[in-house]
Write a structure and sequence with these properties.
Order of helices and strands: HHHHH
Number of strands: 0
Largest sheet: none
Number of domains: 1
Strand content: under 5%
Radius of gyration: 20 Å
Number of helices: 5
Distance between the termini: 31 Å
Structural class: mainly alpha
């Protein structure tokens, strides 16, 4: 069953994951200029670039916070509901955040896709809620 707390957790995770994705992309700008001769030194230089760059580090930490909330939410919800709901909401929020930052989001076809995604998410939540209601034990007493 998906309750109000779980739905709120889904939204928090989707917001943390979706809103940070465009910022993570912006935070990595300039990494292509990091050049080292050795593959190991290249890897270390890129890690140093990313973790000393607050434009990357702050969204990264928020994104990881979403992963922690998601992990705890999975303990109380069905995997078959949590995964599609969170992933599709994350996709929607990534598109919306990216468009607010000036990225191209795909026009009318993307908007239509977002509407279909929201319809699918709603069906998943309502289906889970109705299944839980149908399988609830009856409160009967024997006399």
């Amino acid at each position: 069953m998906v309750g109000a707390v779980e739905v709120c957790c889904f939204l928090v995770v989707a917001l943390l994951w979706g809103a940070t994705n465009p910022f993570l992309k912006k935070g990595t700008e300039g990494i292509e200029r990091v050049k080292k001769g050795n593959i190991i030194l290249q890897l270390l230089a890129e890690v140093k670039f990313l973790f000393l760059n607050f434009k990357y580090l702050i969204p990264f930490l928020l994104n990881q916070g979403g992963s922690v909330v998601y992990y705890f939410t999975l303990a109380t919800t069905e995997l078959s509901v949590a995964v599609p709901v969170v992933n599709s909401l994350t996709f929607l929020i990534t598109l919306l955040t990216g468009s607010l930052l000036g990225e191209d989001f795909g026009g009318k076809r993307a908007v239509f896709g977002m509407l279909l995604t929201m319809l699918g998410v709603s069906l998943c939540i309502f289906s889970s809620a109705s299944e839980a209601k149908d399988t609830a034990p009856l409160n009967t007493t024997l006399t």
